[in-house]
Every structure is written in C-alpha cells, then in structure tokens.
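hey so i finally got around to running both of the ones u sent me last week. sorry it took forever, my laptop kept dying halfway thru and i had to restart like 3 times lol. anyway pasting them below in the order u listed, first the sequence line then the structure token line for each. didnt double check formatting much so if smth looks off just lmk and ill redo it

first one:
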Amino acid sequence: MSDYLSVNGALPDSAGQILHWRKLHGLASSYAVAQLAQNRQPLVYVCSESAHLNSVAEELEFFVDKSLPVTLFPDWECLPYDRISPHPDLISQRLLALHKLPSMTEGIVILPVGALIQRLAPTNYIAAHTFDLHVDDEFDLQAFRQRLSSAGYYSVDQVMSPGEYAIRGGIVDVFPSGADNPFRLDLFDTVIESIRQFDAESQRSGDALQHVRLLPAREFPVDAQ
C-alpha cells in the first residue's frame, strides 16, 4: 500500500487540481482515506451509489482512529416531487449531519454523489430550529407544542419514528431527528422533572438523562412564511 501512495502528497496543492490514486484495490482506498484523516482535517468521501454507503462506512470505521468521527449523509433514495416521501430515518441521518457540519474540524463525511448535487437547507434554518431541554427547566407545554410543529414534528398517539411527538397529560414523548431512541419528559407542573430514553416498540422507559437536544424534523421550513 505504501508503495502506491504517499499520504503526504495525496491531496491537491491548489483548487481545481485533480489527483488520481491508482492501484488501490479492495479496501486500499478506504485505508488511504483513513490515513489522510489522521492529518486532522475534514474529508468528504463521495460514493458512486447509495448502496456503497454502509460498506464504505464500515471499512473506514475499521481503519480510522476511534477519536475521528465518521458521518453518513445519505440521499433521499427517491426522486424530487415523487409521491413517495424519504424515509424518516434517512431524514434523521441527514439532519444530524447538517447540524454537525458547521462546527466539524476533523473526521470524514461519506455521501453518495446523488446527495452531493442536492440543494440543502441553510445553516441558519437548522440552528434556529434546534433547541435543548434540561432537567429542572421551566416548561411551557403549549409553546413547546407550537415549536415542535414549526420544526416539522407530527403529533401522534404513539411515538414510533423520528419526527413524531405525543402529549398525554404531564408526559411528553418525542423522537428527535438524529437520535437512536425517543425520549420521555415527565413534567411536574411547569418543570421538567425527568428525561428518559424509552423503547418505541415496548414503550418501556430506560436510562435517565440530564439533557436532550432536538433537531428539526424536516429539511425545509413548514411555517406560514
């Protein structure tokens, strides 16, 4: 591998310059990118197809330093204006990546070429619709409901997918975009008494948390404007 690629000279010296890496067969290309990532600068790895995304991510996570983040940015896997909406899990992954990108100083972002050519939400939209909740915070239920609706969340009877919320008396269930599990807020009057993860299938509460961050549920505004 080292005979074919000198990592120090593997990046362009100026804008517009193209370098061709040759004789990188099998896992060699992922190994080369992982070596470049050790320079502690953000890299973008563009795959030709969405089907390659997860396999490339597994290869890079094997080679790359564990302290360096590997972030997936999938495409919608459907055509614009199609009758089929993107899957909520894909939107959740994309929004998490968009939230991380402005402050990203190192690591690798993996995306298919289809995602590279799509228009993206402006960074100020993501920032304006991201908010934090902490235990013992004052909590206005009606204002929270309005804020979730403006961020694109759907009100449901039982939370199952990212971008959904349910309110039952003093219990608020939310499945934030970018999260692996939904969260349950227990209210005491107008104060957040506890925050817990819970399983969407069994609805059983799990680990207690002190803080949770909510990203918008959609990549575009759904307010009146």
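and the second one:
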Amino acid sequence: NVHGYLINEGEKMPIDGELIYRGINIRDIIAGYQAEGRFGYEEVVWLLFCGNLPTRSQIDMLRGLLQEYQQLPAYFLEDVLMRNPTDNIMNALQRGVISLYSYDEKADDISIANVLRQSIELMARLPIIMTSAYQIKNHHFKGSSMFFHQPMKNRSIAENILATLRPDMKYTDEEAKLLDLCLVLHAEHGGGNNSTFVCRSLTSSGTDTYSAISGAIGSLKGPRHGGANIKVAEMMHYMRNEVKDWKDDDEIVNFLTRIVRKETGDRSGLIYGMGHAIYTKSDPRAVILKENTRKLAIAKGLLDEFELTEAVERLAPSVLCGAKDDKAVRCANVDLYSGLVYRCLGIPEDLYTPLFAVARLSGWCAHRIEEIATNGKIMRPAYKAVAETREYIPLDQRG
C-alpha cells in the first residue's frame, strides 16, 4: 500500500507518506532487521512472494536457492551479452532476461510453482547480468579492461553487487548495508506504477515470465519512471557547476527558478526529484535514505553535496508554488537522494536505473504471481476513438 494523502469532504489532505509491504510498515521492517545487524532485502523478497515474514530457516533456504541459481548458463555472457554490446545497460537487462527463455525447458509453464522457481532464478541472475553488461559496455565503448568476478558464496545480493562491480571485490559492511537498504526501499510500490502495471497486464495475457519481466524493464527505463534518477543526477551536475556558493540559499533559489523557466538544465522546466503522484508531505523512501546517508557522505567527503541536496529539498517547493501559482504540497521523492547514495558508494550513473530494476524485480514477480493466482481475465483498458468518420477516397482522386 502506498499511502500519501486523505480525502476530507472531497478535498485532498496532505499527510506524511507511508509505504506498506504486505500489511507491514516499511519503517518497521527496516528497524527490525537493522536492530539485529542483518541484511534485509532477501527477507523482503520472501515477504512479497509468500505474504508472511520468513523464519530464520526460511531466509537461509531462500539464500541457498539464490546462491544455487546465480550462475548464468554456459557461454551466456559470450553468446548473449558480448556478441552485440549496447551502451544502455537497461537494454542489456532486457536482452538478458528474454534470452533466458531459451535456456528454460519449462519457459511457458505458468503454474505457480514454476513461476516462483523462475522468479527466484531471475532474482539471482539479474544482478550478475547487470554488472557483467557494465563491464562489456566499458570495454567496447571506452576501451577499458573487463573483469568478471564469480559471485561469492554466503553473501547477500547487495554484497555480491558491490563485489562483482569492483576490481578488488572489496567493500565495507556499511556500504553493503546502505545498498541493501536501497534495494529494500525500491522493492515494491504498489500495482499502479507504470512498470508493475505493464508486468501485470502482460501476465494477464497468459504470456511467459521472461516476456512479462522484460516488458517491465522496458517501462522502467523511461525517464518519466525509473530513469528519473538519472535526470536528478544530471540536474545536480548542472547545479554543482553553476551555483558558486552552495551555502547561499538565494543563489540556489535563483538556479531553481531558472530551471522552472527552462533557462538552464535540460530546459524541461522540471525540478527532478521533487513531487510525487501519491505522496504529498513526504516520501518515506526519501526520508529513510536521507536518515541513513549522512554518515557515509561525511566519510566519502561528500557532505557538501549532501547538504546541497537537502537545500534543493527545502527550497524547491516554494519555487515551484511561486512559478506555478498553486498551493500544491510537494515533497522530495526517492530519486532526489538515491543518486547521492549511489555516488557515495562509487556506483556509476550507468547503473542507477538498472539497480532500480534489480530491486523492483521482487515486486514485479510478486505481482505476476498474484495475477496468475487471483485473476482469470486479460486486462483490456477501455478505449474510445475520437476521429471523425470519413469516406474512402479512390487513389486517383486524392489531392
């Protein structure tokens, strides 16, 4: 459930946002596993797939399955990813997912048990496809050396992403747990977001898992959806270059005003990372990321950038209200802070949106399972044509 406002006598009443997974507030989930010093994403995967919090033995069983399935099929990298390199990792993820269909002897079996098996296999393999595709891109387009690390045993998904991405496979516990938090917060966001709707719509047609997930990745790639985190990074790049004094609110307001007037940035008039379709006073994902990022930002020498991002969150609402002449309540969304988190972790911008896909895969798969289990009809939105009726004109009479 994504809860962002109340309706009071027909009027929208802003409230602090809540994100709820299977009836449990995301803040309680995070507080629970962080109190024990554990990684949380695998626990959330089980919760989304099965509907209940896992026991310790169930988490261990899921981790064992993820470890078993994380090896890609023989020569998959060479035949699928290396043969036709792409400079967009999201497209590489799509190709990788749809190609896995050919390696699955039960690809078209949409029984719940088989779809659950496919879902766990994809959860294990998509991070490896992502980091491998990044290496291939850098080699093909930038001439960099490639390295392909084998995923480590008995490690979380977050740990293996950092290990397979870095040349020396080294990472700190703090870094891995912050990335794990990002995965938890991006895992699911209800059925109304575009990519999840795409997944459910495709599922309703009776198609296979690989086609449904590939379609969802294609949706998430768009800059109006998952690709928005790249637009935030781009906007902050302009801001760091054009704002001379990052402590000067007036200078920051002037920059944001010029963005809205389409005088700088990408000339879209949008302050990326601000506003959400449902959340009003706050996006809980942004709040939680902000709470957990300051310490690492200080350690990485990025405190000034963290505080500049805070300034955008604080000053942009009044700029937007003044420019648009309305009183709509706007908050920072998760994209404003996720890019900064990845920057602190040394993750390249090419992987910002693919990481979103890796995290959201759990939500997509859970929705696919639910759609198969509970609905027997194809989704067919109502559509009304608005063109006027006309007569056919013979070819020689057309002017």
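quick thing i noticed on the 2nd:
The beta strands are 2-8, 11-21, 24-25.
anyway thats it, ttyl
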